[in-house]
Amino acid sequence: MEKFDYKGKIQVYGAMFDGVNDIILHALKGISKDGVYVGEESQRYPCFDSEDYASESRYYWNFVFAKSKTELKDRMQKLKAMPVIGSNFKKLNNELHPMGYWGGDTNYPVEMTTEETKTFEKVTFKEIGKLDMVIAFDTTGSMAAYIEAVRSEVADLVPRLFKENDDLRLGIVAFGDYCDMKSAHEFGDAYQCMTLTNNENDLIKFIRETKNTSGGDGDEFYELVIKKIVEETPWRENSTRAILLISDADPHPLGYTYENYVVGNQIDWRKEAEKAARKKIKIDTVTITNAAWYKELSAMTNGISVPFETGNKTARLVEAATMARGSVMSRAKFDELADNCEDEEMRQVFCSYSKERNDI
């Protein structure tokens, strides 16, 4: 993404707009700028301006651009059908590149998609069955119940996964937060990792022996977890790559500090998501809470935002997520499980992964 001052010049398809107000003007009047048409979708929000000390109305703006009215009509239909993938009515997505977003306040820059960071294109399956899958569990507080559910079934679960796909490599990450680290330079139980492997016994042993963590404050170091998994996992060439993030909190913001373990956090989860997308790594998330960043993270990486929240069904979630993108045999098993599923929550899980496969 590229950011511009709201009064600064913004070039799209060779046309030079004199700031965001010029873009809005052309959109509302339905006129072109040097042959470039603009479409907008906006949402009003009431706010209080501390500078003017008065209540006022502002708008969140999403913009699309086209070289003809016919093309603009098509793009506008797609824009209106797109879900909000960020906070504040934000739909910024390279699926409709070039596209722009403005938060409606003079303090906000105008964000524009760029060719260089075209991270939202479809991530197609590579070699059928060649699946590299990392399951990342938040082990803090109530989230510990989710990995505990997998621990209780792991001896049966892991062999089932590999029985249907002999080209599966599975990795496990169990993590807490900065406060769970042994020191500023030693993770300890804060980041427990079994890298990609097809050794069933090692996986079973590792999952059984993972430790729960406390987590401390409300947010967790998801930004660091995503960064480490994306950068440190030995992803195979031409594999289908996926991360299933089972968690319920928010990442730490930029500038976050905890003692001397992290001082002025500089890891931006969106930047890490863009790295994942460039490496064709899907990140699936679960909707245990309604935190908006999960859906945005999955949308950015072409992953699945899975409607799931019940801890004791986590092993079934892992099975569905792994088999959906695996070998021909594992996909057939996935279809069988989906057809015979009577649990409404799990039916939604199967439906989410089936839709992805049908859309490819």
TrEMBL record:
What is the name of the protein in this document? VWFA domain-containing protein
| Residues in VWFA domain copies | 132-337
Q: Which PANTHER family match?
A: UBIQUITIN-LIKE DOMAIN-CONTAINING PROTEIN
Gene3D superfamilies noted in UniProt: von Willebrand factor, type A domain (3.40.50.410)
Q: Which Pfam families match?
A: VWA
CDD domains assigned = vWFA (cd00198)
